[in-house]
Amino acid sequence: MIQAHEGFVRGICTRFCGTSFFTVGDDKTVKQWKMDGPSFGEEEEPLHTILGKTVYTGIDHHWKEAVFATCGQQVDIWDEQRSSPICSMTWGFDSISSVKFNPVETFLLGSCASDRNIVLYDMRQATPLKKVILDMRTNTICWNPMEAFIFTAANEDYNLYTFDMRALDTPVMVHMDHVSAVLDVDYSPTGKDFVSASFDKSIRIFPVDKSRSREVYHTKRMQHVICVKWTSDSKYIMCGSDEMNIRLWKANASEKLGVLTSREKAATDYNQRLKEKFQHHPHIKRISRHRHLPKSIYSQIQEQRVMKEARRRKELNRIKHSKPGSVQRVSEKKKRVVAVVK
């Protein structure tokens, strides 16, 4: 263990080649460290230290070049060889909580600000491209590693929103299963699923094209989950929570670990085919969807269901007792988007 910064370490990211990593902290510095630990009796020293002008709240590295981005009062793009930013981009005056590079179109990056904005930037033009304002604050975003223009935002209103950056006025999908603020999100390397971490002490795995989660993980001791990551081999999920533990989960809960014999592989494939064949049968569907939940989460789900039904009933009554055409029905997707600024 080393003292890397004075005060909190606010962000960490690895270099694209995996030989070093970067950290930012409350002491207004950006430090680059070797991935390999020091030899016996050797002091751990940072490779580079950059002293900035403001406190940094997040950092992310470019996927192919020696360039990284930090955020705080503004988004700064840095070259690893220089001690001052190449360019600084800002839109509005609120602090920016996270910044992420696009893994496909690597010159694009997105950021979330505390004034409920998600802002997209183009590094080549050194200007912001678009801004979408939601009902509540977005904590972080994650780009789909297989589809260049798709990203998912983790929001304070208990939902996750998948957007296509070419049409930000309506989300592609609203993912709704958490019962408290969603704090982090990360995509699987295949781009077909993502995992979310929530303040409700659980993590959930969502298929990209479904509004409901396919899996939920929780333990008695796990507290508010702050961060989550999907490993590059697509087999495991790691999460960090408030009680200072890191947990390792299987991405596919029923998957058997270790070396499988050919007969075991054949049996697993056959069972999977059977599940797919009969997936729409009512009893099979109920068994495959059923998950045990902690009492706190279960009771909150019931409560929110009652509240949602009351809102729906109120909206129907308002339409019924108003002049025809005066009250328009707004879809669940469009309700949360306040405005799109270009």
List keywords for this structure.
single chain; five-stranded antiparallel beta sheet; 342 residues; 24 strands; four-stranded antiparallel beta sheet; alpha+beta; 4 helices
Structure in words:
Belongs to the WD repeat DCAF13/WDSOF1 family. InterPro entries: Sof1 (IPR007287), TIF_beta_prop-like (IPR013979), WD40/YVTN_repeat-like_dom_sf (IPR015943), WD40_repeat_dom_sf (IPR036322), WD40_rpt (IPR001680), WD_repeat_DCAF13/WDSOF1 (IPR051733). Pfam families: eIF2A, Sof1, WD40. With 342 residues, this protein is an alpha+beta fold. The chain is 16% helix and 37% strand. Strands 9-10-11-12-24 form a five-stranded antiparallel β-sheet. It has a four-stranded antiparallel β-sheet with strand order 1-2-3-4, with no helix packed on it. The protein has a four-stranded antiparallel β-sheet with strand order 5-6-7-8, with no helix packed on it. A hairpin with a 3-residue loop joins strand 2 and strand 3. The longest helix is centred in the last third of the chain and has 26 residues.
Topology, pairings included?
Elements: E1 9-14, E2 20-25, E3 29-34, E4 48-51, E5 58-61, E6 67-71, E7 75-79, E8 87-89, E9 96-101, E10 108-113, E11 117-122, E12 127-134, E13 138-143, E14 150-155, E15 160-164, E16 173-175, E17 182-187, E18 193-198, E19 203-207, E20 215-217, E21 225-230, E22 236-241, E23 246-250, H1 262-277, H2 282-289, H3 295-320, H4 332-335, E24 337-341
Antiparallel strand pairs: 1-2, 2-3, 3-4, 5-6, 6-7, 7-8, 9-10, 10-11, 11-12, 12-24, 13-14, 14-15, 15-16, 17-18, 18-19, 19-20, 21-22, 22-23
